[in-house]
Structure formats: structure tokens, C-alpha cells
Amino acid sequence: MCGICGIIDYNKGSSVKQETIVKMCSRMEHRGPDDAGVHIQGDGAFSVGLGHRRLKIIDLSFAGHQPMSNEDGTIWLVFNGEVYNYHELRESLLKKNHRFKSNSDTETVVHLYEEYGPDCVKHLRGMFAFAIWDKINNTLLLARDRVGKKPLVYSQEEGVFCFASEFSALLESGRVKKEVNFEAIHHYLTFGYVPAPLTIYKNVFKLPPAHKLVLKKDNISLERYWELDYFKKLRIPEEEAAEEVLRLLKESVRIRLYSDVPLGAFLSGGIDSSAVVGLMSQLSDKKVWTFSVGFNEKDYDELRYAKVVAEKFNTEHHEFIVRPKALEVLPLLVERYGEPYADSSCIPSYYVARQTRQHVTVALNGDGGDELFAGYERYQAMALAESLPIPLWKILSGISGVLSDSVNAKNSVRRLKRFLKGAAMPYQQRYLKWIGICDESMKKNIYSPEFFKKISSADPLQFIRPFLDYAGGVFSPDYLLRTDTMTYLPGDLLVKMDIASMANSLEARSPFLDHKLMEFVVSLPAEYKMKNFIKKYILKKAVRGLVPEENIRRRKMGFGVPVGEWFRGELREFLCQNILSEKALSRGYFDPGAIKNIVKLHIERKADYAFLLWTLLMLELWHERFID
User: Fold this and answer.
1) What is the overall mean pLDDT for the chain?
2) Can you tell me the mean pLDDT for 292-310?
3) Residue 331 and residue 493: Cα distance in Å, rounded?
4) How crowded is the C-beta side of 119, counted as CA atoms within 13 Å?
5) Strand order from edge to edge, sheet including 219-224
6) Residues 6+ apart with CB under 8 A from 287
7) What is the number of other CB atoms lying within 10 angstroms of the CB of residue 450?
8) Which in 107, 445, 563, 603 has the greatest CB count within 10 A?
9) Pairing state of beta strands 289-295 and 316-322?
10) What is the tens place of the pLDDT at every residue in 343-372?
11) CB-based contacts of 434: which residues, under 8 Å, 6+ apart?
12) CA angle at residue 532 from 530 to 533, to 5 degrees?
């Protein structure tokens, strides 16, 4: 696991300074505390600088030092991630007379590029973001893994192309203007993150998952190299499908156990992380280390479920309780994310990663299981909503208005009313209502008139419409799975895991996101993933006997944080000092009176605006760190 960065300057007579690349690398020391390297070259017509910070996982020797070149120095690579099939690739390349100087997976990528050019990315099985400078062809190749586990942001302006693993490093180049992208703020308020390829900065972009970018003479070409096919289906019996799911998952866990440093696992007690821990216990000859976080608030605490799994597999188990004072880490997280990010579970994610890093350097997790096997309640809700016509749902939604509401986000009546409001909407708007933080009507209420004019043409549906459209008007869970896999997973969940782990110099590996496993699961009939409203139907069938029955049958709690209560108690002053300050209210985005009223209603328990307030808080903290 590492941090990478670079600058390509096509301005004649200009040069990339080594000290600039060193400064960019220094912003990512947490991503790679074990080693650092810089490569500079140029011929007067252009100048190239590549930088790297290394966290040693495989081949701990200096032979794994980066930037790494081929034998004659015509190919230079900076690589972030892991290639799990590099042993097989290495053997194949040796037969083609490629010569290796190390045992690192990174060097395999160098020789793959020599053999296949930009198509080398198609041969990799793993998580990665990398850059290759081809001196002979004067081209730069950027590539990102299929699902988006490893980040890469870039900017091009006035003949200069910059890239980095994190925004802080990119901004340190001095070649990127810190101008706010107003449209990104609008979408951030909907999703809680800025959807790719946009970023919060004008003229800065995220390289989308499963894409490669080729830069030649200041011209960019962008190409998708892989995509899941949800429409070509296998027809196999359930038993056979379940057996193959378990076989592929076990293989995925096995190849992720290779490491020259200690490893463990995050354990929530949910079916996904429990299955990973169970398979690790089967495959390892050592006791598995497991790590969990919990809360004093019962509605948010999952530790009891994690203990059941830890006891079953006799793991070396560790727990951490997250309390309101945990928000002391917010300035650090704002720095690491580099743009507004409103998933409050970034807090417990950070702390479980910090706790884990005290014992191991690599941790496996259950990320991707929900998007692959239909684990969210909204899949059930969507199927139910499709069972009746919208006019009838509108009547039921109107009747539900007489029901008393609650400021508890997990209250059953409140959940019912939220469901009915969504069910009364068209399909795509319904999805957006259920996954979104701030809907369009709320935005109109809190935006200033000037800001509303600036973003009035921006439509959040543009990011989900290409994936959520379904043919023939026939509902299938596959359309929701596809949408979440292409948007929510890389935009929110994988960003959270990358930042939480790398902020603590910890490598996180995700067996459920192995592309071979994913390709098989999406080829299964949709009813195998959700059957008779049973979520994760085929996965539960596959791991029954491995995972305790209590953990299979339990209701999904999510990884939420009780910030609503915290904002009414210990964090009330912190919230008000930040989002109600004169500076915050004068930024021009929001109507000051509307924001003050929302805070007042929340604190007085007349409404619950926890998610919105957290979203506004993170926006303000980002503004203070990066723009002011």
C-alpha cells in the first residue's frame, strides 16, 4: 500500500523540480512510512517527475523501492496497491524472457506493460492505482482497479498534468488552483460525497474505477477497460450456485492472506465480515486477529454479534468503544479526505483501523457483500414499492401523516413514513429519496437565492440514471445492485475504507470485491440474491454451517453513528461554533435563517436533522482547512 504522485510539464523550457515532488510525497507519508522515492527526467521539450511513498507489505527489501524502472530505464512506474495473481504473471513473463530483480508484485506490472502496453491492466487481479511513464513514446498511463479500491485524482491546466493519491498531495504541487466547484457542493448535499468524476475543486477530477487514462503531448484519452455484465445469466441449480460462491470466496480470501507482515480482520458480526473471518480461520495455521468497534448507544452497537463469531473461531479479539470525544480526530480526517465527505461512519472506521494497526499491518474486511448479494433494506423496499401502483402509495403516504413522528432515526413509525413517501415517487426519484441526505425541496429551503441560480441546472439523477434504468418496466434487484456498485460503493464506502486504513498506515483487503467472484455472482439469476424478500439469499445458503446462525438471521444495523444525540449533548457547542459562525453563514451557499432554524429544531428535539447537520459540518470544516 502506498501513495503516488507526479507532474508532467509540456511547456518548453520548463522543468519539474525534485523538491516539489518531495513536498507532494510528504503529504502522503501516512500512506507509506517505510520508504520514499523520486524520479525526474526531461529533455527541454517536456519534464517529468514521479513520486512514491511506500508501506512495505510484499518483498520488504530495497529491491521493491519505487519509482521502479525496467532494465534500460525506458519505463518508470509508481504503484499503489496489491496484485494477488503476480506469482502466475511472473512465471508467464519469465517464460517470455523478462528478467526480474525483485520479488515484488510491482515489478510484474513493469514487465506486463513492456509486453502488453496499456492493456497490461486487464491482466491484473487486485486493487491498484498506478502511473507509468513511457520514455520511448513520451506517454503517461494512469490506471485504477476495477471496483475503485485505490484512489487517483488528477488535473490538467496550461500544459501541466498533475496526479496524486490524495488531494493534499495534488494541491502541494502548486499547479492546481483551489477554486470551489459549486455543482459539486450541490451533489454532495444529495449523496454525502462528491460523485466521480467530479471533485470539489474546479478542473480536478477523479479517475473513475476500471478506467485507464493515456496522456500524450498534452492530450488525454480515457477508456473503460472492464465492466460487470448483469444481463447475461447462468442457469444453474441453487445448490451448485451456493457451492461455487463459497469456493470463489474461499479462494479470494486465500490469495489475500499472502503477506510478509502480520495480518488480521475487521469484524462487525455481520454475515460478510463473519464469513471472511471464518474462512481465514480455516485457511490459516495461526490464530486470527479480529478487531471491532461499538457504541454505548444500544441501537448502534454490534459488539455482541462480533463476540459470537470471535468465540466460534477462537480469534484474538479486540474491541473499541467510540464516544463523542472521538470527534477530536475530525481535523485529521478532513485533511486526509481532501474534499467534503459526510459518511459519519468514517469516525468508527478510523478508530478500528487505528486499533488494528497497533497489532497488524494488513486487515481483511467484508466490504462489497451488500452490493454484490443485495444486503440493504432498500432492495426489499423497492421490490415492495413496485408491487402497487404509485397513486395508491400516494394515498397511503397521505394517510400516514396522522402518525406521530420521532426524532429517533431508527424509530419504526418514522421508517414507515419515509418508505411511504419514497414509494409514492417514480422509480429513480424514489431511489434518490431513500439514499440521499438532502432532497431537492430541502435544498431550495436552505440555499441562498444567489447560490440556487448557480446550480439550478445541475441534476443529481445524472449519476444514477445510466445504471438504474430498467428495460420493459420490469423490476429486478440487479438494477439496484448495479447502481450501488457503480456509485455508492466506490464513491462512499471504498473511499472511507481507503482513508481510514491509510491514515493509520494499514492495508485493507476486500475479498468480496475480487473481480472473478463478482463476475460469477452478477451472472446468477436476480432471485438468487433476493428471494421471497430474503436478502443475500444465496450467500446465506453458501455460508450456512460456517457462520453462526444467529449472525446469519440478525437484522442489518448498518455502521451508523449517533451524531443526532451527540449534537444535542456534548457536541452541541462544537456544531454551533462551526456551522453558525459568522464566517460560515457568510459563504453565500445557504440562507442563514434557514440554517439557524434547522439547528434550533434539532437541538430542541422538534425534528431530526442529524444527517443534514453532519453534512453541513463536514463542508464547513473542509472549507476552513482548504479554502480559507
Assistant:
1) 92
2) 82
3) 20
4) 2
5) 68-69, 75-83, 126-134, 139-144, 211-216, 219-224
6) 314, 315, 316
7) 9
8) 107
9) parallel
10) 999 988 999 999 999 999 999 999 999 999
11) 378, 381, 382, 418, 422
12) 60
pTM over 0.85: yes
pLDDT exceeds 90 at position 102: no
- Write the CB contacts of 515 (distance below 8 Å, at least 6 apart in sequence): 125, 146, 147, 226
Contacts of 124 (CB under 8 A, 6+ apart): 83, 85, 89, 109, 112, 145
How do residues 187-215 score in pLDDT, each as one tens digit?
A: 999 999 999 999 999 999 999 999 999 99
- Give the DSSP letter of residue 53: E
Q: Which residue has the cell 454451517?
A: 545
pLDDT at 295: 78
Q: Which of 2, 25, 162, 438 is catalytic?
A: 2
Q: Return the half-sphere exposure (C-beta side, CA atoms, 13 A cut-off) of residue 534.
A: 11
* Domain spanning 2-224: CATH superfamily: Aminohydrolase, N-terminal nucleophile (Ntn) domain (3.60.20.10)
Under 8 Å between Cβ of 590 and 448: yes
CA 141 to each of CA 32, 108, 138, 162: distance values in angstroms, whole numbers, following the listed order: 22, 16, 10, 12
Secondary structure of residue 229 in the 3-state scheme: coil
What pLDDT is recorded for position 405? 66
Q: Per the structure block, which three cell numbers stand in for 485?
A: 456498485
Gyration radius from the chain CA atoms: 24
E strands, 338-419, where?
A: 362-364
For 505-534, the pLDDT digits (tens) are 999 999 999 999 999 999 999 999 999 999
Active site residue 2: yes
Angle at 272 (CA atoms; ends 292, 491), nearest 5 degrees = 85
Grid cell for residue 208:
473513475
Percent of the chain's residues with pLDDT above 90 = 77
Name the grid cell of 465: 440514471
pLDDT average, residue stretch 40-65: 81
Q: Is the backbone peptide bond immediately before 151 cis, with ω within 30 degrees of 0?
A: no
Which class does domain 238-373+482-553 fall in? alpha beta
Kindly write down the DSSP assignment for every residue of 277-293, as one continuous string: HHHHHHH-SSPPEEEEE
Site of grid cell 499472502: 258
Q: Spell out the SS3 assignment of 440-490.
A: HHHHHHHECHHHHHHHCCCCHHHHCHHHHCCHHHCCCHHHHHHHHHHCHHH
3-state secondary structure of 380: helix
What residue type is 529 in one-letter code? K
Residue 491 is which amino acid? G
Structure-block grid coordinates of residue 9: 510539464
Place of cell 495480518: 263
Degrees, nearest 5: CA angle 453-456-459: 160
**Stretch 471-491: mean pLDDT:** 87
- Three-state DSSP string of 32-43: CECEEEEEEEEC
Which is nearest to 340 in space by CA: 145, 208, 450, 186?
Answer: 186
Give the up-direction half-sphere exposure of residue 622: CA atoms within 13 A in the CB hemisphere: 25
